Hints:
mainly alpha; single chain
Amino acid sequence: xxxxxxxxxxxxxxxxxxxxxxxxxxxxxxxxxxxxxxxxxxxxxxxxxxxxxxxxxxxxxxxxxxxxxxxxxxxxxxxxxxxxxxxxxxxxxxxxxxxxxxxxxxxxxxxxxxxxxxxxxxxxxxxxxxxxxxxxxxxxxxxxxxxxxxxxxxxxxxxxxxxxxxxxxxxxxxxxxxxxxxxxxxxxxxxxxxxxxxxxxxxxxxxxxxxxxxxxxxxxxxxxxxxxxxxxxxxxxxxxxxxxxxxxxxxxxxxxxxx
Length: 259
């Protein structure tokens, strides 16, 4: 059984509104998610988990949180089983980040401010591991590492695992919304040499706008499906006063229910 279901039921307090994670709390969360000795080998790092959660929240059907956590930690059991205090802290901070993403990606363009705009979590990449300008190997894959590489891969992985993304991906008018995600996942853009990741993070605003636009598109898409699914029902035929009463009393309508 997925142990996260039980944990959510025990600890979920939706009425307890928490502020967005502070910088110190984000640093703490990155540290907890980087415990390679205690977490499963297949567990995602914080940056990848952030991309995965974001895709789930802005996509066609958000994953239930217990399943989301199982995917992130690569196991149906709770992480850090031998340290309940760190376990609770990890899950609490991670779910608060989930709430932060949910809130910031739901804002309309009129509501967005510098303080609440959606921004992906970015891990620091050692300068010696970054190769700029980028270079490709014989497989045409980028050499070295780059910032938001894992975030883009987490988002891409979530899309690849869910066929329900197909309506957006196949729409020529909006399919390009995922281009910034693919760019950060691959590290370069093979189709547009001029659109590349740079050290000044000039593409970050484009990534942020694209992510929020995806959520808006899916919201409108589901509304259109709901509207199309509502059948038109013609009203019942009008009963004349001299017609037999629909209640089968044998009387005229005006002498019975229409009196």
